[in-house]
Amino acid sequence: xxxxxxxxKQSALFAATAALPVxxxxxxxxxxxxxxxxxxxxxxxxYKNTYIRNVFVAENEFRNATPTxxxxxxxxxxxxxxxxxxxxxxxxxxxMYWKAWEMAFKNIKSPSEQSxxxxxxxxxxxxxxxxxxxxxxxxxxxxxxxxxxxFQKTLDNFYAKQHPDGFICREIWGDTGEDCFHRYDPVSTGxxxxxxxxxxxxxxxxxxxxxHKIYPVLVGYYQWLKLNRTWKDGSYWSSGWGTGMDNQPRxxxxxxxxxxxxxxxxIDTNLQQLFIGKILIDMGFYVERWQEIEDxxxxxxxxxxYIKQKMWNKDQSFFYDVYANGSQADFMGxxxxxxxxxxxxxxxxxNTFTSHLSDENSFYRHHPVxxxxxxxxxxQAEGRYWQGGVWAPTNYMILTGLMNKGYNSLAFDLGIxxxxxxxxxxxxxxxxxxxxxxxTSDPGLLARPDFVGWTGLVPIAILLEVIFGLKxxxxxxxxxxxxxxxxxxxVSRYPIGNDGILDLKCNSRNHKKQKPExxxxxxxxxxxxxxxxxxxxxxxxLPGTNTF
Length: 548
Known about the structure:
Blueprint: H1 38-41, H2 75-78, E1 84-87, H3 91-106, E2 108-109, E3 121-122, E4 130-131, H4 132-142, H5 156-160, E5 171-172, H6 194-205, H7 208-228, H8 240-243, H9 267-286, H10 294-311, E6 312-313, E7 318-319, H11 347-354, H12 392-404, H13 408-429, H14 458-467, E8 470-473, E9 478-482, E10 489-496, E11 500-506, E12 518-522, E13 526-532, E14 535-541, E15 544-547
Parallel strand pairs: 9-13
Antiparallel strand pairs: 1-10, 2-3, 4-5, 6-7, 8-9, 10-11, 11-12, 12-15, 13-14
Helix pairs in contact: 4-6, 6-7, 7-9, 9-10, 12-13, 12-14, 13-14
């Protein structure tokens, strides 16, 4: 069975123009202990053992864990437990929500005996393999079903496959559990988003036991990337496959757009490492491992300075890749918006940076947000993967990033338009797609159908978080509710923490500036921060029914 998008190798759309550069391999030390190398994982036992052991991997409990198989309940039974949204003026949105869950429950898999996976998981819905990039975003929406099935444990199978030096492969064969790539292959891993998914889950459910267990795994992987994916100047590199955005037109012509690092510093990879470093620092404080995060703090200071000085173009208010000679590339890609999850920009700079998302000549298209801007020569109206295709994961990153920076109105505008376009395709096809065309209400060229998969983000997470405006934080015991709709809407059985369940209802309003009338039933005490176009209020939610 072909690996993900392997059929593109032969496609003239992405033809290679040069041989791959030889990746840099650090000097290694031999170990007398017999270890499972990446070679044996990929079926080749002829490689020498070149591991430099990472001390954090020694704490990885997942590598020798006994598999736990969780049989899912049927969807009809799960539907009585899952959060239940209502939106009086948009029945199709509710139909899509339940359709996505139904498809997700069909994609729950138990690991094969020979795979070495340790947990039942929500499949990527692509080719039978598990993908790090996809699974991160799958767990972002699947967490809302945690009362029904332990979806977050989907990531445990990657942790079980961590190598002695901290490496985790980005794609692993579903039947054998072997890595799809040697760890020194330029396409072998990435993007590093595991800590983001875990932090979102931790904040929502306050699962302290899981946080303590995953922390050393995530630090070990972070350190591997720092040792093996940086140039002499300390900046990070990746590849088309390594970023997950396969065929973006960002490398010079002599390099293969899918498989080569291009001797280039990659903006999305650098921004992600800065973002993830901050998350690991926060996790380090939570688990009280103060000294161990000092190196990450130093790395973050360096990256913040490097990215702002080398990769930010103040005249164009955008971030760019950097070529080997130090010059900036000219490709304005969607990966630059990972900056929304950093503190690199001042408020004025953020205003001009985010204005690109409202520009009809680039990113604000019929179906926003295209992965390649419309004013680029390689932009394709039908999408053609990452040459303009609209993807649920990058849109989710942008929408939640905008809300993280306080651009709630822009996030709502983009989010509801994105949701509407997906709904238009759903109305014609009765399913969800791997990605979408930016200029029409159609699937993207060659997109896979029945993709839940990360496209479950749109009918579930984007509905609840962006359109409904709900965000739970079990650590702070708060619910933030940013209300933009004027229709009656809400959700029953909304989960928070280990035991919290809420029913939330907002009555219809005459206009956006009208103060919302709310009815909330809860089994635990919480603080509620409500924002709307006309103001904001903070309320105390008590167990029982509350009206505001």
